[in-house]
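Note to self: the last two entries modelled the partners one at a time, which told us nothing about the interface. This time every component goes in together.
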Amino acid sequence: MSPLALYDTLTRTTQPFTPLKPGEVSIYLCGATVQGSPHIGHIRSGVNFDILSRWLTKSGYAVTFIRNVTDIDDKILQKAVLEQMPWWALAMKYEREFTNAYAALNVLPPTYEPRATGHITQMIELMKTLIERGAAYAPGNGDVYLSVRTLDSYLTLSRQKLDDLLSSQDSESSFKKDPRDFALWKAAKAGEPSWPTPWGTGRPGWHLECSAMAHAYLGEAFDIHGGGLDLIFPHHENEIAQSQAAGYAFSNIWMHNAWVTTSGEKMSKSLGNSLRVSELLKHFRGIELRWYLGSAHYRSMLEYSREALEESATGFRRIESFLYRAGELLGAPAVASLSQSFTDAMNDDLAVPAALATISESLRLGNSAITSGDMAVLAKSANEIRGALEVLGCDPFDLSFVTGANADETNALDGVIQLALAQRAAARDRKDFAASDAIRDGLIALGITIEDTPQGPRWSISRTEER
RNA sequence: GGUGGAGUGGCCGAGAGGCGAGGCACAGGACUGCAAAUCCUGCUACACGGGUUCAAAUCCCGUCUCCACCUCCA
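The predicted structure of the combined assembly is written out below.
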């Protein structure tokens, strides 16, 4: 069996994965800055790293997964003014939207989900350490800056040279010793929230929270740090700078997911509401949206189109309906197992597209087995498909996706349809196809699909979505 | 200006020197009273121009186009 190999942004290579502690994996993922509603790009990151976490767990590791919520930053304060509510109410509002979106797409809750505002103490401690070590300074106005010129390893993740960077347009740079130094802490402004520190009252800069929280929950060194591509610089560079200047080894490897793009362009918050998770969930089930977002390799851009999403959903329903049929024929739902080819694909830096090809293969074999009546092959195919779907977080039997349908109502509906099907069967027996087709067409018009199988007719609710 | 990514068949989307990824769509066939579902067959593509090699989508040189980051970002 091939061992798990992962791509590391720092070395730009794919290497066999070796955890710092045998049998354990610690992951820190930059989660949401809760300043707006989640769109599918945000949630793709959640899905990609959820697949990573599930695969590590499936591979036998004890996974500690930390995904933070940044609930204080410039944009949150701006939006709070705009939406005329306290900044903390705004942050909570959007945090809930993210939580709901994650749940709808079956993204497992992290081991812990720390909020920036709950870790001011840890941030102050970190700044003290940095100042003691001469890596940070407080110019006296309440700001605290990190002195990037003191660091040898600064910008190694993004492979840039400090002097090549465009200078920031930062108006407060007068307090900086070097224009490229960045703020760990920002002095209080009138009307803005602030916390007391030894250097004056203020609030966190953007990057400090992640270093402080990663240290608090994962220690000085941990295995994997993840986030979107656009976080490489400056966010992750600055996290590295803060943490390593404090004497911590920090993350062993770095993983970055690519974006969802539209018309070749990165999805930005100015594109409107159409690609909000909540909007798409009106037309697609969470499991279908997840299947789509997870289907491309995590390091490849996913070019969003409505057509591609619809196709993807159709493809998923085909797999799903096979599992239901297999369950009916076998008398019990499939039991998750993993094929070697699926395992090999996942071990190759989470090659989900290759893994999906193995599902297609199993599906073809399984459908053939239904025709030939080969129950052993059918069971094997169904089990492997369910195992694969489970790892991808798209197991239709997963309780997270099973809606709370009322058993009495379901039975009643089944009874009514069986009654209609019996009438149709009687019509067919007397070759009255006009009558039998009228019954079938009537059911189709109600959104109920009829399939004639060797085991008798099956019915299912059509998933044709409304527009 | 610096750094990085991308261009693959009608569409989506892998691969990264040699054995046609896969899916969707489409066409033909099997099955069916007709459908649906399913299976079988077909569809041989890698931006452009050179080069290296027995062999290039893949490596090298050049060109074009697009995208991203450079202290707001998944």
